[in-house]
Amino acid sequence: MYDKYRTESTMAPPETRRPPLRPADARRAVRGAVARRALPCPAEALDDALLVTSELATNAILHGGGITNFAVDVEGCAVRVSVSDRSDEVPVAERAVDERHRWRAGGRGWPIVCRLARDVEVAGLPCGGKRITAVVPLN
Question: What is the pLDDT of residue 2?
Fold first, then answer.
């Protein structure tokens, strides 16, 4: 009955519809969101936002059981990236050396996120898992 009024949407689907499967997909979504806003921002600032995005996505895949949701939004002169995963464990910064004073592999991503982001929030989800949101300045 309403088929004659149906039209095809010309709008791009929002990034929150399907979570990215790889960190590269998450970075692509952030780069696209920033480009659509046409904000002038230094390349270094965009690089920081992409690094934070990559770290959050990688940690969700490696330590959180996979990415369950992803959202990106450009607000003023900052980008807000949210990555959800299946784990209830809160990320912690680990020492770069082990008890024998040898350099450990990994463990540097969370400190990078905390250093580059203006705000970082870790929130538990009602159905289990967590959402980490980081706001990275673009100026």
Answer: 45
Q: How many CB atoms lie within 10 A of CB 38?
A: 7
Q: 72: helix, coil or strand?
A: strand
Global pTM reads 0.80
Cα torsion at 43, 46, 47, 52 (round to 10°)?
170
Instruction: Tell me how many degrees the CA angle 35-37-41 measures, rounded to the nearest 5.
Output: 70
Q: What is the separation of C-alpha 9 from the centre of its chain, rounded to a whole number of angstroms?
A: 27
Quote the distance between the C-alpha of residue 104 and its chain's center: 25
**Mean pLDDT across the chain, nearest whole number?**
85
* pLDDT tier at 20, thresholds 50, 70, 90: confident
Question: Nearest-CA neighbor of 71 among 12, 10, 26?
Answer: 26
User: How far, in Å, are 9, 12, 18, 29, 113 from residue 35 at the CA level?
Assistant: 21, 14, 20, 10, 22
The three-class DSSP label of residue 62 is helix
List for the chain the helix, strand, coil content (%; round to 5).
35, 25, 40
55: amino acid identity, one letter: E
Query: H helices within the chain, ranges in order?
Result: 23-37, 43-63, 109-116
